[in-house]
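Input for the complex:
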Amino acid sequence: MSLQGKRIILGVTGSIAAYKSAHLTRLLIKSGAEVQIIMSASALDFITPLTLATLSKRPVLVQFQKDETGVWNNHVELGLWADLFLVAPISANTIAKFANGLCDNLLTATYLSARCPVMIAPAMDLDMYQHPSLIANLNRLNSFGNMILDAESGELASGLSGQGRMMEPENILIRVNNFFKQKEDFKNKKVLITMGPTQEAIDPVRFISNHSSGKMGVALANAFKDKGAEVFVVSGPISLEVERNRFHWTDVRSAKEMYSAALKIHSMMDICVFAAAVADYAPAEIAPEKIKKSDSELTLKMVKNVDIAFELGKIKKPGQLHVGFALETENEAENAKAKLYKKNFNLIVLNSMKESGAGFQLDTNKVHIYQSIGGSISSEVADKSKIAELIIDQIKLAPIGV
Ligand code: PMT
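Predicted:
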């Protein structure tokens, strides 16, 4: 495995696991990477810059530096220089700073300036690792597309035993290698992802919609992007914090708008993933003014919405691959398979509202994936980013043009 020519910023923060960053630096350098180390001030209590500078063959940076014009801008240059920003170990403190845009040292400023992907390897005590605020911060970083290298379980510096140990440097090296390798997987591929709910207006202030948060779609968009794809998102209204500028992003409201945005680009796409929860019906008419409360009942006439996946399935070109989702509450497998063929999908991802840990809003999902050529697999309950990886693995197996 070679990292020849790859430029990596290695951030080191205050944690007992900082001693492992020396070994990690050595492994990265031996693999051919150029490594620029940035330490937080508290990391200096755990390992010396001299050790890391010697191993990385570069001066270690801790503070903002003035250039010859007197301007403090090394964080911007560093952010543009790197192919990967890796922070190992990252403490709960720095995780909170990254998640909330705090910028009080060179490492946090470089994080905000970095245009490259970010990978973090948390290290802390087991109770800290389970704390809801830490979990919320990690989820937030995950939704920004940052890759999180889950802490490993074992004996901790506190003497307690549990999850919180920084991933071993050898395993981090594997993940770094995989990251660079996977960037080739979907190189030059264009991927459309519909996501989120649609909102169908009743009058200027009311609409009909559903509970989709867009989390599954964002996880897919991030995973495709990390694998080198050019990702086109057509999203219904969502309130997630997403780094939209990683993608070609179009915000829409109604099914009609989603259809016309998707149709416009469909012919250029290699892969289309229909993760949106599209309203099947919309009010026949949108009242021009707010409907006043008058009678004891209100009857709305609804008409069928365009079925985006079905319509685009009819014009699917040879070589294009369509992936559908099915959200079911009964006869799950049967209904999902019927949609697989009716909508001309190459594969369909079934998530059932009956399974705990699956479906709308949650950070996790549990899916069954059916291929049009036969064969299926089922997942355990897992984070939506892991489910996205599984879906992409199945996409790689699907024969194109079927
Ligand atoms: O967004 P989250 O909160 O993370 O939740 C994720 C999810 C549950 C919304 C997602 O995983 C999911 O299942 N999306 C599809 C939900 C759905 O509308 O399923 P469906 O069985 O009604 O539709 C089948 C397929 O046709 C889907 O690919 C859907 O995008 C597509 N469709 C449906 C109706 C329509 N008018 N146009 C469509 O394109």
